[in-house]
């Protein structure tokens, strides 16, 4: 009798564990060189095409990096962000957080080449994950973090889910920490991955409330460096300006480095979400650690691997799309 009870308890505990850690179990199925036998040239093809485009478009790395981030936070890293809308369905692409994304053509070119080389083998989810890494790595001419592969593609894309799940640059630290925790990422990951703001630009309306009406009294966010605030006001003439863009990392927005954290310590983080990283004193040591180049590159790579494993579809789950913007018919 005791044996039966123990067995039932064991099965119940295992069932809870399996349910709770299903995403982790699936993530464990990702592996290095997943396509070594099924499509040996897969990663080389992704890299070569991505590098070709980055060489002629220096703004592409932050676009692909953000696309990967936004994809993983909605239904996991399943390339749902690449799906086009249908007459009856608004998709992730249709939402304001994704309206400025670029690079879809790069991914389609990669997919077309891979379908010619090894049809039905390489997922769009893996293509996006690899391309984001390769775009950022172009300046170094070598991969700067490891990407494990084996993801499969999702079949559903929802504008509503995108709006509900993609973190906003207007969010405070408490909200951001919870949103990351919901995806299995830590506050440490939040700090480290915020370093992605070292490349790229932002539209004024995503941060200008800090310049013109922070508390509703026409004031400037006191946590923002006053000299930097004056500089930003010279760029953004109102908090409603949705056309003007500003470098997220002044004088260094095309170089992937740890300069973002140097700015952060000088109270020159562009977004409210950036400033929030300094509020929690228990995490200030992480920001300080990122001031060392080697630490930033190592930790960023580790956090990207964790982010790239959010809610992945593996094995027989999901699909391998023939075209990245359409579900298979």
Describe the structure.
- The chain has 329 residues and is mainly alpha-helical.
- It has 3 domains: 1-29; 42-165, Peroxidase, domain 1; 173-307, Peroxidase, domain 2, CATH 1.10.420.10.
- Helix content is 47%, strand content 2%.
- It contains 15 helices and 2 strands.
- It has helices at residues 2-20, 22-28, 42-56, 60-72, 104-117, 124-137, 159-165, 173-182, 187-193, 209-212, 226-235, 259-265, 272-276, 284-289, 293-307; strands spanning 201-203, 245-247.
- It has a two-stranded antiparallel ribbon with strand order 1-2.
- Helix 3 (42-56) packs across helix 6.
- The N and C termini lie far apart (53 Å).
In this structure, how is the largest beta sheet organized?
A: 2 strands, antiparallel
What is the SS-derived class? mainly alpha
Low-confidence stretches: 1-25
Number of strands: 2
Give the total of domains: 3
Strand order of the largest sheet: 1-2
Topology readout:
Blueprint: H1 2-20, H2 22-28, H3 42-56, H4 60-72, H5 104-117, H6 124-137, H7 159-165, H8 173-182, H9 187-193, E1 201-203, H10 209-212, H11 226-235, E2 245-247, H12 259-265, H13 272-276, H14 284-289, H15 293-307
Antiparallel strand pairs: 1-2
Helix pairs in contact: 3-5, 3-6, 4-6
